Each structure stands twice: as C-alpha cells, then as structure tokens.
Amino acid sequence: MNLTGNKYGTHRVIEPQGVLPQPATKVDNNMGQVFDNEILIDVDVLNIDSASFTQIKEQANGDTNEIKNIILDIVGKQGKMKNPVTGSGGMLIGSIEKIGDALKGKINLDEGDRIATLVSLSLTPLHIEEIIDIKPEIDQVKIKGKAILFESGIYAKLPTDLSETLSLAVLDVCGAPAQTERLVKKGDTVVVLGAGGKSGILCCAVAKEMVGENGMVVGADYSDENIERLKQVGVCHHAIKLNATDALQCYDTINELTKSEMADVVINNVNIPNTEMGTILMCKDRGTVYFFSMATSFTKAALGAEGVGKDVDMLIGNGYAIGHADMAIDILRKNEKIRQLYEELYT
Fold first, then answer.
1. What are the boundaries of each domain within the chain?
2. Quick one: which of 217, 208, 216, 282 has its CA closest to 244?
3. 44 φ, ψ to 5°?
4. 177-218 pLDDT, tens per residue?
5. d(CA 91, CA 155)
6. Nearest in space to 111 (alpha carbons), one of 94, 133, 135
7. Which CA distances in Å does 70 have to 30, 62, 148, 280, 343?
8. 296, 280 Cβ separation under 8 angstroms
9. Model-level pTM greater than 0.70?
10. Is 23 strand, coil or helix?
11. Which CATH code for domain 175-346?
12. Which of 172, 83, 71, 54 has its CA nearest to residue 131?
C-alpha cells in the first residue's frame, strides 16, 4: 500500500510532535518504508557545515576516529546529521535509488541520477551504514548510507564538467554568493569576513563584480594562508588579516581604511562564535549586515547592535535563493583562478 507523507516531511518527525523536521530532535530514518512522495538516495558523501565540522573537530581534539564516533552518535540519536551544539547540518551527494510513485513524471529526475541535495542535513532523514573516510581539511565524510528527500526538498543534478567533491563543496555554500548579488550595489564598500574560505571567496568575486570601478571590496581573514589565497585569485581590492572576534580591531581597521565612512555591506562567513559585534561595528548606519555563518548568535547580534546604537539591517543567511546552484557553478566556469584553487583544495 502506498502512503503519502506531508510535503514538508512532518510525517517523519518523532519528537517533538507538531514541529517541522529541522527543529525536531528526532526523525524517523527508517529507509525500509519510502512514502510515495519521497525520494530515496543512496548516499556517498556528506559535506558537513563548516561551523559544525569545526566544532566536532575541536570536541574530538582532531582525532579522526573520534570524529567518526561523534557523527555516528548524532545520527544514531536524531536520525539526521544535526549538530546539537551549532544546530547546523550540511548537505550530501548520492544517486537516486527510488522515486515515489506520486513524484514520478513530475520532477526532472530519474532513478540513477547523481544529485546534490540543497536542503540541510539538519532536516534530512539519514541512515549511515558505514563511515568509509573522513577528510577534515574539506569538511567531507565518505559514507555508505541512505537518505530521504522530501517532496518540498530542493536539489541539483551534478554537473559533468566538475568533479563531484568540488561540486558538493561549492553547492554547499551557493546561497552566499546569490544573496551577495542581491545586496551589493555599484559604488558600495563591501567587507567580507572569512573571505579566504569556501563561501568567502565566492562572495568576494560576486561583490567585486557588483561594486564596479568606484566601489571597494575588502576581504578579511585571520589565516595567513587564506590571505594568500585571496591575493592569488584577485577577488578583492584589499586582503587584510583581521581577528573577527576582536570587535574594536574590526572597527578601527575598517574605520581607517574607509576614512571613517565604514562599509555599506558586511558579509560574515566566519565559522567560529563571537564575531557578531565586529561585524556590526564595521557597518555604517543604515547599512546591511549579512550573517551567512551558522556560528552566529542572533541574540548577540540583535541585542549587541542595540547596545552600541547601530542602526543597521541584519539578515539571516538563508541558504536558498532561486537559481543559486547554477550561479555558484558558473562562477567556477567563468573564473579560472578560482576554479584552479578549488580544484586543488576540494578534489
């Protein structure tokens, strides 16, 4: 007998009842029963959210076996990969094993297609049979397992001209450059924190194109290696070393660089906590702060901005924007330097 589930996946929620799968503390990851409006995926690789993987590595003291144990424990208890500390997940790639009867012919997928899910692992029912390999330097975990994509879930077919691990790495953060394109205008001064990371470089590339000849893009990062990467790909006008947790250093540096004008847009891609106030202080009144980082405390941001009298618009890093996957992949196709760097890092 075919069973139809809720399009948003609430039929998989075990506890607490009445919530959607993302805020749920436990979901049903039984892969033996596939509802007729679900898609069953044979999973190869998990791309763990950067903030989540950073926290797990710290908890495990960098020990690979302990990282495996932590991931297996999370999925075993919750039925999904939702880090209980950061609340974030990541995404996956795999092959379509089964398409529910209610979806057949209504979506542009066939069984056997290779896809990346564009919804968070923090809401995706997941069963891990085995962790085959951990790649801590790129936040990826090779597994043997299964996952469920709900009717409302979004996905991207993997491009044939890029490696799958590279595609996964880029698609995991594709919401950031898409939102950057919406926020940045000609002539703007833009600061990107965590600029030398995976999402940061893509944001800088888009911002530099958007600001035009009269604008300025400042890429800030704490890592010397990431600063060199920024200079290598040439996606910002200034690549500076900055501790994003030091709010006054952030303010003083950008105040001097902009001759007290401050930034029109500040984009936070940092994967550690306590960067909210540094981000806010770099922005001018009536400017825009975009927190893409899942390490952000929105309580600290809201109350902190109020506390220092900053009248700025603050946006939550929505990972979804229409056309975001194609846009992110196109950045690699158009920018040979970024593509070469990412191929070195993620393949």
1. 10-158, 175-346
2. 282
3. -110, -45
4. 999 999 999 999 999 999 999 999 999 999 999 999 999 999
5. 10
6. 94
7. 20, 12, 21, 34, 29
8. no
9. yes
10. coil
11. 3.40.50.720
12. 71
